[in-house]
TrEMBL record:
Residues 82-104 are annotated as: Disordered. It holds the Pfam family DUF6042. This is Uncharacterized protein. Residues 88-104 have a biased composition (Basic and acidic residues). The lineage of its organism: Bacteria, Bacillati, Actinomycetota, Actinomycetes, Glycomycetales. InterPro entries: DUF6042 (IPR046105). It comes from Natronoglycomyces albus.
Length: 288
């Protein structure tokens, strides 16, 4: 997917608007385009036009969902990147991954379409239409500028539970999914601060690991973990309490209930936890 270019002046740089992690599961991938903003204060919509490449209209007319491409391309890439593996095995893995990706993509589009219908807003198909969608559901706040032009300010930190229409069971499921999001973000932050588990890259959550493999330990504090995870420190504290209760982490003599936000403490994380989340950031389901 193409992106808006940043301005060349080093003194004028865009920032990345904060966004509630759950929107990564709900919104099309192209929402990342609209996280690039001049500031978190109101700005003219035309600012994005100034950042676009020479053929700016091409980006605005791009589809909102990523195109997985042709399965034959996936097979060719797998066969090239899996030396020592038979072509048949590489093809099967590529087809399985492609099927998973397209299935997740289809389910996401269907769920997003339902959310649009319940909100009584048009389903966006292009990048430009996606911006209007974000305005319609108030993830962007709209203003009238000094010369009568459209100005916007991001409100992407709003919780989907406060924006979209959920029935009771859906709301409970979304709440559970959000806890999973925070667990992954917390684990990513732990890994960034204390290091990787040996041989953890490429492992999935269902891989059987040696129980005798030592935990990974290091000094952390809640503020640093929150900075890396890009979530509030109280959320990090809550997730550490949950992970400790499940036996995934330990903090020796430190009481997670009372430790100060900037107070350093020793944290040990299990290899199984670190191996369960090997990405460097939250990804949409079809890309994870």
């Amino acid at each position: 997917m193409e992106s808006f270019e940043q301005p060349g002046d080093d003194n004028v740089g865009p920032v990345r608007a904060p966004m509630h992690p759950a929107w990564i599961r709900w919104l099309p991938c192209s929402v990342e385009l609209f996280r690039v903003v001049p500031s978190l204060d109101p700005f003219p919509t035309t600012w994005w036009d100034e950042l676009s490449p020479e053929d700016g209209t091409r980006i605005w007319d791009e589809p909102v969902w990523c195109d997985p491409g042709d399965v034959d391309d996936w097979i060719a890439e797998a066969q090239e990147n899996m030396p020592g593996t038979s072509r048949e095995v590489a093809e099967k893995e590529a087809r399985d991954e492609y099927d998973h990706t397209t299935q997740e993509r289809s389910e996401r589009i269907e769920r997003f379409t339902t959310a649009c219908r319940r909100a009584e807003v048009p389903v966006p198909h292009t990048v430009r239409q996606l911006l209007q969608f974000l305005i319609n559901i108030e993830l962007y706040r709209e203003f009238t500028g000094p010369d009568g032009e459209q100005w916007l300010a991001p409100q992407l930190t709003r919780n989907p539970l406060d924006v979209l229409a959920f029935d009771q069971s859906e709301a409970l499921e979304e709440s559970a999914d959000q806890r999973s999001d925070y667990e992954e973000l917390t684990t990513i932050a732990i890994r960034n601060l204390i290091g990787d588990a040996p041989h953890s890259h490429g492992l999935s959550a269902d891989v059987t690991l040696d129980d005798e493999q030592p935990d990974v330990s290091g000094a952390v504090n809640l503020h640093a973990l929150a900075e890396v995870a890009d979530v509030p420190a109280p959320v990090i504290r809550g997730m550490l309490l949950e992970l400790a209760a499940k036996g995934d982490i330990s903090t020796e003599d430190t009481d997670l209930e009372t430790v100060k936000i900037d107070e350093s403490f020793e944290l040990s994380a299990s290899v199984k936890l670190l191996a369960a989340y090997t990405n460097d950031e939250l990804l949409p389901p079809e890309h994870s």
